[in-house]
Amino acid sequence: xxxxxxxxxxxxxxxxxxxxxVYEETSSVxxxxxxxxxxxxxxxxFAVPARSFTCFLGPSGCGxxxxxRIIAGFDTPSRGEVFVDGEAVHGPxxxxxxxxxxxxxFPWLTAQENIELxxxxxxxxxxxxxxxxxxxxMVGLKGFGDYYPHELSGGMRRRAEVARAxxxxxxxxxxxxxxxxxxxxxxxxxxxxxLNVHAMFPTTIxxxxxxxxxxxxxxxxxxxxxxxxxxxxxxxxxxxPHPRDFTKGELAVLRRHIYRTMGVHAAL
Amino acid sequence: MSLKGQGLQNWFAVRWSAFLLSxxxxxxxxxxxxxxxxxxxxxPGVIQVLRGLWELIRDGRLLDYIxxxxxxxxxxxxxxxxxxxxxxxxxGTKPFWRRAVNPVxxxxxxxxxxxxxxxxxxxxxxxxxxxxxxxxLAVFFPMVVFTTSGVAGxxxxxxxxxxxxxxxxxxxxxxxxxxxxLPEIITGLRITLGTAWLxxxxxxxxxxxxxxxxLIVDARNxxxxxxxxxxMLVIGCIGLLLDNLVRQLERLPSVRWKRLKx
Lengths: 268, 262
Description:
The complex is a heterodimer.
Chain A (H helix, E strand, L loop, with lengths): L11 E11 L5 H4 L7 E11 L3 E5 L6 H9 L6 E6 L2 E2 L7 E4 L11 H6 L8 H14 L15 H14 L4 E5 L7 H17 L3 E6 L2 H7 L2 E5 L6 E6 L11 H13 L7
Parallel strand pairs in A: 3-8, 3-9, 6-7, 7-8
Antiparallel strand pairs in A: 1-2, 1-4, 4-5, 9-10
Helix pairs in contact in A: 4-5
Chain B lengths: L2 H33 L10 H13 L2 H33 L1 H14 L8 H8 L3 H25 L3 H9 L4 H36 L7 H10 L3 H26 L6 H5 L1
Helix pairs in contact in B: 2-10, 3-4, 3-6, 3-8, 3-9, 4-6, 5-6, 6-8, 7-8, 8-10, 9-10
């Protein structure tokens, strides 16, 4: 698995080198018996190209979220290192914005106030407001700025959180199953919007999903994980134009391959 | 008809039936006292109770007593809240200290504030201070517990998001931790205000020469059952008003999210 971590490639945004995560047996997670394995992540080595849309694909509970939190600096590896732009990660960074699995918006702030958090560094109040309104409109929430998150639909909340992330002009965007809780159609719409976002803001996106079709439609690169103890099974490069039809040609072959790799033999 | 209109209609219906219910209860009370010929020194009727209250209103004692009781509750309550909320936030964010201090609080909390009366009198003498001290005790410990659990139970996602956007230091406490725990703090404020009102009446039966608690003891000593019951009615009404007052806080838009999520 070491072929991916050639640090001589300057195009890599994120590099994961020999990363392990082991939960202490005394931790509440291990004690609850839900996760009896102490080893969560085992010897991960791979790289994420700059400005790529990279999907982490793997079975539920395989530690994808843990890995993403480690790369974002919210958690620390037990062994190994994460490099961003060649520098080791030590803690969170306002240029590396995380979009959370469940609502990461602050429920006590309105949509507008939440998005404003992304431009905290801009001192000029009017300029800040102008930017916030622009981003509200961009994600289709014009006129909803004064609504509190609990007054918005699930899809609107996701959009607001994506706007809060984008307005910070992030270098890396982390998304931990951001559309998992949405209904099917809203999910498909959000997928489409994510592709537009990535075309407009070509930033590096690390996107967790356990939906194979979602990964195939979105990703420039898919990192496939095994079950626990989690290793990298395969790193796939997808150099196909959007929108993608995964029922035909090479993509259909690739899709069948991923389904088989993940233990499903009759790809639907 | 819009949903909002229905809500308003509903609100009036609820208020109206509550009013009718209390009116009928009082009517039933008066009738029962007359029909069964209950002696006024055992249980006076509504009309006699209202007359007794009118007497207290006319000579100005009722207003004086209400002000005295509210004064003591306000001071004890505010003092306790002002100390308990910061302590609760501290304990909520520091698991080590929480584990160290929690047994002490859980040990002191179930001791009724009334058990402190002898100590309160010994330390603070006669006057407002022992009563304020008792209110303080009744509010302080539960308020610490409410705040601590509110802060300790904050969804970690909010803390991750805060650190992601570089919110640190005092801003982390004022804009994130306090706000995230606010719904539970307000629940604590409401419950402890009720407790404070419960305790003030008992405290005033002993240490002071005015207040609603004193009114009841004084009326009993002069065999004025009408004024004893009148005093109870006033205490109940003020308790209801205080509760309604704090309930308004729960309606704040920046607080309602918690209840809607559950």
